[in-house]
Amino acid sequence: MAFTTLHRYSFLSLISGFMLPAMVASIGINYGQIANNLPSPENVVPLVRSIGATKVKLYDADPKVLKAFANTGIEFVVGLGNEYLAKMKDPIKAQAWVKTNVQSFLPATNITCIAVGNEVLTFNDTSLTDSLLPAMQSVHTALVNLNLDKQVAVTTAHSLSVLETSYPPSAGAFRPDLTECISQILNFHSKTGSPFLINAYPFFAYMANSKKIPIDFVIFQQNTGIVDPISNLHYDNMLFAQIDAVYSALGSLGFKKVPVHISETGWPSKGDQNEVGATPENAKKYNGNLMKLMAQKKGTPMRPNTDLNIYVFALFNENMKPGPTSERNYGLFKPDGTAAYSLGITGNYFVNSNTSSGGGGGSNTTVSGTPPSTPASSSTGYLSISSGTVSSVLICHRARVCALYYWFVDLANQTRPNALLGGITGYR
To answer: What's the alpha-carbon Rg for the chain, to the nearest Å?
Structure first.
């Protein structure tokens, strides 16, 4: 697509219909690059700002991206892929990696966290699991040696399938086979002050049981909700119930003070015929309503005074991702810089609209930047790992392992939902 000079110089006016209010200080966005048609990192900067994001999470430590965002003040989580874990157990190699991929970009680029590995514990790969904590410890030691540990945290992202029990949220508990390993990781978080990261996708629960799960409960629309029979707390959306289940699981192991951040959540705007709910309208409602809740600084029922720290997946549709159609359509933006769909946001305020945009249509809102002269390189931060079946559910999702929650909810009768935890075999 050709871009004129007018596109470049009228950029701010074009994004005005997509702007979030300045008060949203905690919105994060995942910036994946499994595509061959993305704009250059320099042209991504205004797109990130246009949605009000102040935090960006990478799946590697792409130097082009880190340089492009220098002096923007935007916080960065850089990724250290699963394939590096064994090497990172060596303190010397860990320090060399930190010097090259973190220290060299500070302080111009605001790197605040290193995510060591991704959903390692649910790959059922013993060598990866055994390498995870030692790698995290070596990276943290490197930061200490370089006097960077006060500004850069070390953590790792987990699939929700680390949970054995998710309902009711107050009874959340980790899988028994992972408890010892997770306890050691939580002890690391407690000592270093770093957050516990979880990837959560209510979309998959709805897709698997769309006839039994009310769509309004998963996309933050008005509904009667459910009541936790133990805590008597009321939940009007699935994501908050999942977050509180994680808090309960942490508390059951004696780590109530470790903060929980949602490192990935999102909704696809397009999917295959069997991917029920993957539409622009549902994506608009899920992500738009989620951002609205974050703007209101509304915590979960269990932690009402704790700000939400959530990274939306994802910045772009990524055309080279394998798997079902939904995998390539999680982006808020298309590769040409236009909005994948409208979030229903204008100016400095959120606009609540009940008007359907119709199926399959995109937004007329255009957010354009100068396209790259050559395709941007793809991120290759993770190994292709084949894991065994965690349970009876096997679904390829997001090139990593995630959790499927089957919430069978009869909101009208307030019947108790069941939560069946399914591990999902990932690939990349």
So the answer is: 21
57 phi and psi angles, rounded to 5 deg: -115, 125
Cβ atoms within 10 Å of 115's Cβ, excluding its own: 22
Rounded Cα–Cα distance for residues 377 and 374 (Å): 9
Summarised one tens digit per residue, pLDDT across range 121-134 is 999 899 999 999 99
- Residue 48 CA to residue 311 CA, distance in Å, equals 12
| Catalytic (active site) residue 327 | no
Q: How far apart are CA 206 and CA 223, in angstroms?
A: 15
> DSSP assignment, residue 4?
-
Catalytic entry in 75, 119, 180, 327: 119
Among residues 264, 281, 318, 327, which one is catalytic? 264
| Residue found under tokens 């290193």 | 114
Query: Which of left, alpha, beta for 337 (phi over 0: left; psi -120 to 50: alpha)?
Result: left
Percent of the chain with pLDDT over 90: 70
Of the candidates 260, 318, 312, which has an alpha carbon nearest to the alpha carbon of residue 284? 312
pLDDT digits (tens, 9 = 90+) for 169-191: 999 999 999 999 999 999 999 99
8 A C-beta contact, residue 329 and residue 270: yes
| pLDDT: which is higher, 205 or 331 | 331
Q: What gap in Å lies between CA 57 and CA 154, rounded to an integer?
A: 13
- Secondary structure class of 343 (helix, strand, coil): coil
β-strand partners of 406 = 420
Active site residue 264: yes
- Report, as an integer, the average pLDDT of 100-114: 98
Q: What is the rounded distance in angstroms from the CA atom of residue 52 to the CA atom of residue 150?
A: 26
CB neighbour list of residue 338: distance below 8 Å, 6 or more residues apart:
362, 363, 365, 366, 367, 368
**Would you say the C-alpha torsion 391, 395, 396, 397 has a positive or negative sign?**
negative
Average pLDDT over residues 50-69: 97
3 state DSSP class of 181 = helix
Cβ neighbours of 91 (radius 10 Å): 15
Predicted confidence at residue 297, as pLDDT, reads: 83
Residues 6+ apart with CB under 8 A from 250: 186, 196, 256, 258, 260
With CA atoms as reference, report the closest residue to 268 among 322, 321, 340, 200.
Answer: 340
Strand partners, 28: 55, 311
∠9-12-17 over CA atoms, to 5°? Answer: 140
Please report the DSSP string for 210-242 in residue order. TTTS-HHHHTT-S---EE-TTT--EESSHHHHH
